[in-house]
Amino acid sequence: MTRQRSDEHRKQQIRAAATRCFVRRGFTATRLLDIAREAGLSKGGVYFHYRAKEQIFQDILENLASSLEARWTFDPVTEQPADRTLGQLVKAHLRTMQDEPDEVRLQNLLVSMSVEEPAFRAKLEEITRIMRGLYANVIERGIAEGVFIAGDPNTLAISVLAYINGLGTFTVLDAEGRLPVAPELAAEQVLRMLKAHASASAVEFAAAPTKAPPN
């Protein structure tokens, strides 16, 4: 293993340990020594790569934003109705939250810290922009197809994200990181909220196999 790869591997080890400490203890209560112990390293071993926990947290956020962008920046399926695409997107989003509860905890921590730290607020806005843009594009297509209510796609996307993030918060409260409702039911609720006609089926997408977003 080259020195560069070895250093990056060690930084990944430190970031993973720091994430566990931050979501468990909170940012303020976490010390470099706590992170070092969690990572199985000496304090000097952490200090060699990061001089302060703020640097570690910023690096974690950079990696989180890059991961989210890689996961969710793609062109949604356009050869199927927008409501079916949106239903599949909501299900995939919630399943990811359920599978990655520490990621949800980290974003919740970022929300609380962004009130006082402009740099953290900017990173939160970047993460939100990625997700809002993806949902807004699908919703805009649904409005054009006449299956979703008329309105500003960005505003409607924010409403959908508020609902999804609210459900995601419950994974933090559950010992096993479970959602309070099944992703399929949550997707149905979102579609009912956006459907132009109340009589339209909100579960028509469920019969089709879910196409997961590309990695």
TrEMBL record:
The organism's place on the tree of life at top rank: Bacteria
Keywords: DNA-binding, Repressor, Transcription, Transcription regulation
Pfam (any one): TetR_C_6
Domain HTH tetR-type residue range list: 8-68
InterPro entries reported in the protein's UniProt record: BetI_C (IPR039538), Homeodomain-like_sf (IPR009057), HTH-type_TetR-like_transc_reg (IPR050109), HTH_TetR (IPR001647), Tet_transcr_reg_TetR-rel_C_sf (IPR036271)
GO molecular function: DNA-binding transcription factor activity; transcription cis-regulatory region binding
Gene3D superfamilies from the UniProt entry: Homeodomain-like (1.10.10.60), Tetracycline Repressor, domain 2 (1.10.357.10)
Chain residues forming the annotated DNA-binding region: 31-50
PROSITE patterns associated with the record: HTH_TETR_2 (PS50977)
Classification via PANTHER family: HTH-TYPE TRANSCRIPTIONAL REGULATOR BETI, HTH-TYPE TRANSCRIPTIONAL REGULATOR RUTR
Protein name per the record: Putative HTH-type transcriptional regulator YfiR
Organism: Enhygromyxa salina
